[in-house]
Design goal:
- The chain is an alpha+beta fold and about 220 residues long.
- The protein contains 4 helices and 10 strands; from the N terminus they run αββββββββββααα.
- It has a domain at about 65-185: Jelly Rolls (Sandwich).
- The structure holds 2-acetamido-2-deoxy-beta-D-glucopyranose.
- Its main location: cytoplasm.
- Keywords: Apoplast, Cell wall, Cytoplasm, Disulfide bond, Manganese, Metal-binding, Oxidoreductase, Secreted, Signal.
- GO terms for molecular function: manganese ion binding; oxalate oxidase activity.
Length: about 220
């Protein structure tokens, strides 16, 4: 005898399962679908280039992640290789990034709306973490050393920080989308164009409006992705 609450639970479970399926990159229906960036046809992703004209270079980018990058104001630089850099990634649901961190640099709190991320440290040390969704907003964090691997689940706010004041750090991240997208929290909230009303943000952040005005007046620089 199924109670109405267990039926509701089942319905919620089914709804969450179908949402997960809709929210990930579509699975390929052929070996590959190399993006044709010149097609005027609009689809979810890119239309396929003629498979007869596909060659190894469609799946290749020379020296894409070979060297350290100049880091930005918060001390990081993300070099993302997504479908825009390698057209063969179209429909395959994967991309890769190299992240360079200056001493005491960080890749500030951000989310990827379309991807889970798995990160490994190549050099140095990183203090990393993510926060679960409402209501708990539980913070899960870890200090990673060379060779350690950590996962940031899709959509959750996460960051990496290099706690070493003398040495840079480097990480490689794989992401489960051909185009993971990124929303850097501070930049999106305080650096939007046009600005969000300071009445809204003052109330949301429980601060005076002049604190919001100060934050909105800063220069908000995004990493490449
Ligand atoms: C990342 O590094 C590249 C190459 O060093 C540089 O051209 C680019 O401006 C850097 N990006 C940021 C956000 O600093």
């Amino acid at each position: 005898m199924a109670s109405s609450s267990s039926m509701l639970l089942l319905a919620a479970l089914l709804a969450s399962i179908s949402w997960q399926a809709i929210a990930s990159d579509p699975s390929p229906l052929q070996d590959f679908c190399v993006a044709d960036m010149h097609s005027p046809v609009r689809v979810n992703g890119f239309v396929c280039k003629n498979p007869m004209e596909v060659n190894a270079d469609d799946f290749f980018k020379a020296a894409a992640l070979d060297k350290p990058r100049v880091t930005n104001k918060v001390g990081s630089n993300v070099t993302l290789i997504n479908v825009m850099q390698i057209a063969g990634l179209n429909t395959l649901g994967i991309s890769i990034a190299r992240i360079d961190y200056a001493p005491l640099g960080q890749n500030p709190p951000h989310t990827h709306p379309r991807a889970t991320e798995i990160l490994t440290v190549l050099e140095g040390t990183l203090y990393v973490g993510f926060v679960t969704s409402n209501q708990e907003n539980k913070f899960l964090s870890k200090v990673l050393n060379k060779g350690d691997v950590f996962v940031f689940p899709v959509g959750l706010i996460h960051f990496q920080f290099n706690p070493n004041p003398y040495k840079p750090a480097v990480a490689i991240a794989a992401l489960s989308s051909q185009n993971p997208g990124a929303i850097t929290i501070a930049n999106a909230v305080f650096g939007s164009k046009p600005a969000i009303s300071d009445d809204v943000l003052a109330k949301a952040f429980h601060v005076e409006k002049n604190t919001i005005d100060y934050l909105q007046a800063q220069f908000w620089e995004n990493n490449q992705y």
